[in-house]
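Blinded run. Sample ID left blank on purpose so nobody reads anything into the name before looking at the predicted structure. Input follows.
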Amino acid sequence: VAVVPPALVSPFHVAVQDGAVEQARAFGWEIITQSPERETDFEAQVAIVEQLIQQGIDALSVNPINADAMIAGVRAANEAGVPVLMHNMITPVAEGEVVEYIGYDQWGGAANLAAYVCQLLADRQGVDVSEATGNVFILTGIPGFHANRRTGGFKYGLEQNCPNVTVVGEQTAEWEREKALQVATTALQQNPDIDVFYGNSDEMAIGAALAAEQLGLIPNEDIFAVGIDGNDVTLDLIREGTVTATLGVYPKRMGQVVIEQMAKMFAGEEIPYVLLTPSTVVDAENLDAYIAGETWTDPVEGAPEFDNGLPTVPEADATEDAEAGATIYEGATVAVVPPALVSPFHVAVQDGAVEQARAFGWEIITQSPERETDFEAQVAIVEQLIQQGIDALSVNPINADAMIAGVRAANEAGVPVLMHNMITPVAEGEVVEYIGYDQWGGAANLAAYVCQLLADRQGVDVSEATGNVFILTGIPGFHANRRTGGFKYGLEQNCPNVTVVGEQTAEWEREKALQVATTALQQNPDIDVFYGNSDEMAIGAALAAEQLGLIPNEDIFAVGIDGNDVTLDLIREGTVTATLGVYPKRMGQVVIEQMNKLLNGEEIPYILLTPSTVVDAENLDAYIAGETWTDPVEGAPEFDNGQPTVAD
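Blinded prediction complete.
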């Protein structure tokens, strides 16, 4: 196969190429990479593509300098029967057949970066973000699609978030550091009141930051510099405090995705026309999480991006569902039934559902048992709600087998049933959709995080880390099984020398976890990590450790699952180490959004997989701001079989 960058002047394109080469070699493939010397030489790039086609390659991916010029290369490939992909680009060329476009939403990413800048200025001024003021200078790339989208999206983000911030200058630096240094030096000499330099690329942001330093300005105090790419050199300069932030677009991972998509194509699998890769605003707070890949989310099918001066994803009309653009179903009465409201997780899910239902103008009924052990009461609640003439119902069952009776009652009454925080089909009865995250996979990721934590403390490779883990399990059943099994699996895969020295239920509750953890530590003071199947149990363990005189995050670590607000506060305070954030409030909103689609007659997937993210002090603010959220995707069911949800 062949991969053709625009040039290798920018570290971004080097990283994409490195990722592609690494993945191709992992597959045992031969890979040819070739590019022009300069990012302005589109004729040379087309000639390279035409020459590669003559060499009998099986597939080609190109990041075109000029999309219109590359039509000739695409046509040549089409005639030779060589499938063409394009990467770092999700805008279809005007002519010729391209199998797949792989890249991130440049407008949307730039708009998110602008929102970050608005908050930066607001924080410095101590005002609300909408009241922030300041002067921004934009360093653009070579005129064309990429520069247009990254500049337009950034300006749009400023207008939407801090309309009083002014763009005082805009000039091309042709993607290059040295040219940006020259342009920024002149700009600052002419206007010393510039607060922010925004570069369409990281290299230009670096040039601006260096110019400011040379003129005696202090980065991140007197002036800010932000860019787009997420290159390694930029990440180093963020750590040093020279560059403020970047829109990290995972260049090396993008290169790997290109090869992975080629492999799917060769295997005869269907691949989407547009594959949207993620982007994340990266600063000193979430830098380590980005580098560790914790902020990465799997690419999803997306919409093309056009050079039209408008957002890639249009803003929803007030009369439309904000997520899908579907008309709101009028006058619905729906019900959401948690297992109980003892845990802040279920309170947050309920809050999200109520908020979204009210935004739609719907009536919503929420009801639950007093305790998470009372499955009979939960079934009775469902059966009573069905008698009230509801239009749809979503339940998070305490006991899936017991809830079959409730599902059957709903089926007989013609009330559609969804289940949330669960992607395991019940044995009988018709459930329209299951909405939730992969509990095994999420727990395994949390275990990998714990392995790295121990390795870093010991100064060894992660595979050599040792330590003692105590697991606080939930009420015996599916959820506890998957979260415990996935965590153990993650330990085995990443740090096999770490030992699980104890395992005991605390029934999802903080107080019971405090009691169990206190006894465990008294019997075994060498415990290094407490893992709770839920946040509340992790909190109980952390409090037990503190009461016994241990210092959290030094003597002992406590991690859990949920991402509840109280847990996030305790992560910030340094009491709890980390959580698997599963966006409980957003999950509740998704439940109502899916009901809306269903009631409008739209097809919805049987399994809707919501995201999960390991959250610690590094990426805490990004998680809270919703920057780590990714749209749910169709997924596979999760079974209580002691195996990963998605097979290795």
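Unblinding after everyone has recorded impressions. The longest helix spans residues 106-125.
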